[in-house]
Structure formats: structure tokens, C-alpha cells
Amino acid sequence: MTDPVQIVPDTEHRGMMALLPARLRDYAALARLDRPIGWWLLFWPCSWGVLLAGGERRWGLLAWLLLGSVVMRGAGCVYNDIVDADIDRRVARTALRPIASGRVSRRAAWMWLVALCLIGLLVLLQLHWQAQIVALGSLALVAAYPFMKRITGWPQAWLGLVFTWGAPVGWVEVRGFDGLGVLALLYAGAWGWCVAYDTIYALQDREDDALVGVGSSALSLGAHVKAGVGALYAGAVLCWGLAVWLLRADGLALLALAPVAGHFAWQVLTLRVDDGDNALARFRANRMAGLLMALACLVVGNAGLNG
Question: Which letter, b or e, does each residue of 12-42 get, where b requires 16 or more Cβ atoms within 10 Å of its Cβ?
């Protein structure tokens, strides 16, 4: 197993993190505030729901949802680290996380989790009651997620349900419960996208996961990771194409999905499953994929509303 000292995140010593006192730096790291990729991946489905529903002028709503994505992703990471501390100590990439290393106590972590959730509650109160109900529906999924790797070889499938829940929240906030067929397809595609990119991310931990005895889709797919990721991305684009068609039966509208489809193809074709750095870079590239999909939703949603 790799010596944990060799993999201390360099983000703890630059940018915003470098300006924080060492003690506060641990709490920021616990909420992954030094790693914005996570909150972007949580936010993009929120934006897709808003924009595809025709809420292209709801910039205030998008700002609130971005704040909610930052704090709730942080809260999810804190909760995950509390539950997984024993496992994290046995995995090279995670052994020096604040709880696993003992720098932050479980009691202090629970207090930090509550503080983040209170900010999330402030965001929740900005939404209509229908969207509030939908948002609260994710809590059971979030609570169960850290245990999935212990009971299934496909924890990423559960993460796909959790991490893309913002799409229904955004849609319902703008259009209520109208157009649920479009929403279902948007969410299904978002699920496939999430399972694919987190499978790529899990490639970094395949050896450690096997030794510790926890499941991951990267392990379950074995030698077929690239094919599996490709199929998930293709399924995502197919679902999104059907959602676009239901909203606006125009072949030209489907062209809006071409950039994100091309980006997915690039990821699969250039993915090297035995290269952790390559896998991490392809995972992080999904920030751009999310933006490309948001632009597609903006074009289609605006045209569909006006049409």
C-alpha cells in the first residue's frame, strides 16, 4: 500500500486553504472546500432542471442552488468521513483525511455537519413548497449512501440517485409537477452520467478497495471499465435526447447535445484505466461536460418555452 505521507493533497497549502489557520484548514478540508469539482458536479444537474424547464432568467435561483451545492456537498463529505473513518485509515488516498487521521474528533465533525446543514436549510427556504418536498426526499438516499460500498459492488449506482437529485429540484421549482416525462428522462440521463464519472474516479482505489473488501463499479466491471463507462455515457445522451424530443420535437434541437456527446466520447477514448492521474483528469473534466449540458438545456429550454 502506498505510504500515505506521499499523497497529502497539495490543495491544503495553496489558494484559499493557505490563508486559513491550520485548525480551520482541517474543517475546510473535511468539507472538501479545497476541491470545487464536487460542488460543480452537484450543481450542474440543478442548473439543467432550471434551464430545461425554461428558467433561463432565474439567476437568483441558480445562485442559491450553487450555494446549496457547496454546503450540502460539504455536509455529505463530513457525514461520509464520519461513517467511513475506519475504512479511510486503511486506504492510502484517504488515510490522512481529518477524521481518519485524528486531527478532527467525531464530535467536532458532527457539530460542523450541523452548521453546514443549517446553511442548507436557509437555501431550502428560498424554494417553493413543492421543490422543498422534492429536496427533502433526498435525505434518506444521502443517509444510506456511505453504507452502500459495504453491501453492494455498485455503490456508484446509489450515488447516481443522490448526486443528481438537483435536477428534479430545479425543474419542480420552475415548472412544478408539469412535464414529468421530460424530467424523468433528464434525471435518468443524469444518473448514467454520474455513475460513469464516479466509476472513472473509483479507478484510483481499485487495489485498496479490493484489499479492504468494499465494493465499487470499477471493480465490478473488471476488464470492461471502458466499455461500461461508454455505455453509461451513451445511455445518458440517449435519455437526454428523448427528453429534448418530448419537450421540443425538432431534430435541430438534438444538435444542442452534440458538444456534450463529443466530450463523453473523448473521455472514453483517452481513458487509461491503469493510470490514476489520467482517470482523475477525466473525472475532473466532467465539470466541462456539465457546463456543455447546461448550455444545451439553456438553448432547448428557452426555445421550447417560446415555441
Answer: beeeebeebeeeebbbbbbbbbbebbbbbbb
In whole angstroms, what separates CA 294 from the centre of its chain?
Answer: 15
Per-residue burial over 134-171, b if 16 or more Cβ lie within 10 Å, else e, is bbeebeeebeebbebbeebbbbbbbbbbbbbbbbbbbb
Q: How far does Cα 267 stand from its chain's mean position?
A: 17
Q: Are 183 and 49 in contact (CB under 8 A)?
A: yes
C-alpha cell at 70: 457547496
State the cell numbers at 256.
Answer: 444542442
pTM above 0.70, yes or no: yes
Q: Among residues of the chain, what percentage have pLDDT more than 70?
A: 93
Instruction: Identify which of 52, 67, 55 has the alpha carbon closest to the alpha carbon of residue 167.
Output: 52
What's the domain count of the chain? 1
Q: How confident is the model at residue 119 (pLDDT cuts 50, 70, 90)?
A: very high
Whether the CB-CB separation of 194 and 156 falls below 8 Å is answered with: yes
CATH code where residue 215 lies: 1.10.357.140
Neighbours of 288 (CB within 10 A): 14
Q: Which domain holds residue 260?
A: 4-306
| Rounded alpha-carbon distances, angstroms, from residue 169 to 46, 67, 173, 187 | 7, 14, 6, 11
